[in-house]
Structure formats: structure tokens, C-alpha cells
Design goal:
phosphoprotein, 6 helices, cytoplasm, LytTR_DNA-bd_dom, 207 residues, 2 domains, 32% strand
Amino acid sequence: MNEVAAHPDFRGLFFLDIELKAAKKDGLQVATEIREQLGFAEIVFVTTHSEMAFLTFERKVEPLDFVLKDNGREAVAKNLRDDIGVALRRYQTHLLTSEQHFSYQIGSRIYEIPMTSLLYVATIPGHPGKIEVHHDQGIVEYPGNLNALETKYHNLFRCHKSFLINPARIQNYDVKSRLVTMQDGSRCEVSFRKESRMRKVILQTAR
């Protein structure tokens, strides 16, 4: 679970037994923590305790499947193959959808902003490790860094070490001052080494 907590953007398929022998936590506790910490996760219980299936709903774990070991090896293997296929299709759909949203995490909660509403993301001077997201509904501050977001969102452009902008929301660009004006009137600086790329991004967006 330490690995999961350290990577909230991780996407995974987890096979758990409700009864985890010699473990400090049972499968339900682990599943609950996975749900709290990950934005996208599929959970499959493989167990002999069919009578405990209702607990997964009571705790809002929302498992993909509940596979009974008593059904035999072949049946279990088929169920697991089917579950892997379903999880893969859901993940592919999730990827398509996630490109249309900007997500961020505060505590254990994950929020989403439509990409069409996002203007830019910026570092906060004097507050290393914190960034602010500017969108049509306001500004949100949370712990994060632009390097990770630049890698995650290929449709955004890093015009400066302090700014990650949404090219689709650019109003205009002043080449002389190297300032890009966003559709809300705010301005973001463009570094000298990104100036050439900035022009190309604007031309591509205008097509």
C-alpha cells in the first residue's frame, strides 16, 4: 500500500482474497484503501467466503467481480481471464476520457476539470511543491509539480518553467514581449528557448 500511496496516478487491476492470512489487514481493508487512494482501479476478490460478498457493497468497494475458489480451477481461470479483458477495455475507455479532463488530488479525493475549461497551471512563487490551476470557474491550489503534469498531459504546453498552458485557450501572443494572453485576460511568460515552439503551437492550434 505504500507504493500505491506514493503513486496516486497509478492504474491497476488488483486480485485480493478477503481473508489474508498472516497479514495485518484483510482484503476488504486493503480494497477500501485502494479505492480511497487511486482514481482508477479494478478490484477482483478471489475467495472461498461467498457469505462476505455483501460486505464489499456495504463498504462501497465496488469490485469488478467476486470469484469463488470452490467453483474449480478451470472456472476460476476463465473468470479471471474475462475480468482481465473487461478491466483492459475499461482502462482504454478511461484513457480516452481522461484526455478530455484535467484531474488533481487533494487528500484522498480526486477532482476533475473539463479540459475545455482549463486555462493554465502555474507554480506559486515562494511555495515550492505547490501549484495553482486556473480555469473558468476559478483557481485551485494543491501540492504538485509541473514536470509530472507536462508528462501526463501531452495536449498542454510548457511555455516557461513556471507555466503549463492550454493552447486551445490562448487569446493572442505578443512575440516582442514574449507574453501569451489567455482567454480570461491573464498573461503567461514564454521563455526564450520556448519561443520558437510557442509559435508552432499557435499555428497548429489555429488550424
